[in-house]
Amino acid sequence: MKQKKTHNQPQAKSSGFLFNFILFLGFVFAVSAVGIFISGYSNFQTQWDQTEWTVATAQVVEVTDSQVNGTTVYEVEYQYEAGDTTYTGTAQRSSDDLKAGDSLTIKYNPDSPDASTANLAVDMAFIIQASISAVLAVIFLYGPSLYQKKKQGGPVRRLPLR
After folding, report:
1. Which of the residues in the chain have pLDDT under 50?
2. How are strands ordered across the β-sheet holding 112-117?
3. Are the C-beta atoms of residues 104 and 57 closer than 8 Å to each other?
4. What is the C-alpha to C-alpha distance for residues 60 and 162, in angstroms, rounded to an integer?
5. Is 59 exposed, middle or buried (0-12, 13-18, 19+ CB in 10 A)?
6. pLDDT, tens digit (0-9, with 9 covering 90-100), for 41-67
7. What proportions of the chain, in percent to the nearest 5, are helix, strand and coil?
8. CA 96, chain centre distance (Å)
9. Coil, strand, or helix at residue 34?
10. Model pLDDT, residue 3
11. What does the domain layout of the chain look like in residue ranges?
12. Which of 6, 36, 109, 115 suits a disulfide with 130, CB 3.0-4.6 Å?
């Protein structure tokens, strides 16, 4: 019996450990980007809502320090007046630049004056962190495929130039 000759399509070689590891890193960066964005957006939204709050000057009542993960954190207790009522608030700081009797600029919620914050700025660092993780995810997920296609001589799709 005569055997038929068949022309098999070239089989792709197994990708190898490094290829799979780089794809795994891409997946980790993608998950990281999503996690950073979700957790950062919640804080951002809270801080954004606080931009409308009333600015006031509070008086520092007490400063205590504690160790958190090997870092000294200073807890500042302050008092402020809203209307005819005195309220108390706390803030955490990384430096001991305040002492009892010092003034501290705060914001409080005019609709609920017992809610206050000493954080006056909107922190958008999460956007930078999430963006870096997202770019790394794209590089690590898409890059090895492009490299493998180029190495095997397959078509590499490129964006059209304008």
Report:
1. 11
2. 85-93, 71-82, 54-68, 103-109, 112-117
3. yes
4. 61
5. middle
6. 888 888 888 888 999 999 999 998 888
7. 40, 30, 30
8. 26
9. helix
10. 59
11. 16-51+123-154, 54-109
12. 36
